[in-house]
Amino acid sequence: MTAPVFVVDTVPAKGRFVLEGPEGRHAVSVRRLHAGEHVVLTDGRGAGAAAVVLAAEGKDRLVVDVTDVTVEPRPEPRITVVQALPKGDRGEVAVETMTETGVDAIVPWQASRCITQWRGDRGAKSLAKWRATAREAGKQSRRLRFPEVAEALTTKQVGALLAAADFAAVLHEDASVGSGALATAGLPDAGSLVLVVGPEGGVSPEELALFAEAGAKPYRLGSSVLRTSTAGTAAAALLLGRTGRWS
């Protein structure tokens, strides 16, 4: 089994380091790590340190010896998923699985047919949940670079994001309105790939038209219809395989 990952504000240099606070408590009181076990410390922004546990002190202090420090390069091409707001806790499910799969950025989208609305305190709390989910899923999947979870965008703002992408696609179940299968779409070797996942009610004709003007064509994944909370994960996995990032 690979070493467990813990998050720090700044990855330490080689030598003795004490992991404290909530992460230290988790390591000592929940994981019950002991001397001789291996851990990884990361800032979630690509830097990581391999370390060996020297001792556990009290309930929330883990003393380690950092043996190696690395910086993971930014992956190419970069994959962003624009995720329409699902109902209930399906949003956290989508963020969790997309993080585990390897998505680089997640953009919440307030689509016209979204039942869920992010307004005021509720919107702030929901965004915080998505970001916390990405952080925990990044740790669980042993990532050094966690996905960025942006502020929720309007349809017009999503259009601007798509216009700046090197490849943009709107996932659509109806092959008659699409440009074919995502599995055979032409992809750049580098740059930004952006996928749009619509809500349970689908992407509206007006939204499709705006996105088409921005250069984002509709593509289908396959013959089955996926839920909004799983479509982004499936599409991202397809692109990760096709671009060689899964190799």
UniProtKB/TrEMBL annotation:
Reactions that this protein is recorded to catalyse: uridine(1498) in 16S rRNA + S-adenosyl-L-methionine = N(3)-methyluridine(1498) in 16S rRNA + S-adenosyl-L-homocysteine + H(+)
This protein's UniProt keywords: Cytoplasm, Methyltransferase, rRNA processing, S-adenosyl-L-methionine, Transferase
Gene3D superfamilies: 3.40.1280.10, Hypothetical PUA domain-like, domain 1 (2.40.240.20)
Keyword presence, S-adenosyl-L-methionine: yes
Residue span(s) of domain Ribosomal RNA small subunit methyltransferase E PUA-like: 19-66
Pfam families: Methyltrans_RNA, PUA_4
Keyword Methyltransferase in annotation: yes
Family: Belongs to the RNA methyltransferase RsmE family.
Compartmental location: Cytoplasm
GO biological process: methylation
Known function: Specifically methylates the N3 position of the uracil ring of uridine 1498 (m3U1498) in 16S rRNA. Acts on the fully assembled 30S ribosomal subunit.
NCBIfam families for this protein: PRK11713.2-3 (NF008693), RsmE family RNA methyltransferase (TIGR00046)
UniProt domain Ribosomal RNA small subunit methyltransferase E methyltransferase: residue ranges: 76-239
Protein name (record): Ribosomal RNA small subunit methyltransferase E
GO molecular function: methyltransferase activity
EC number: 2.1.1.193
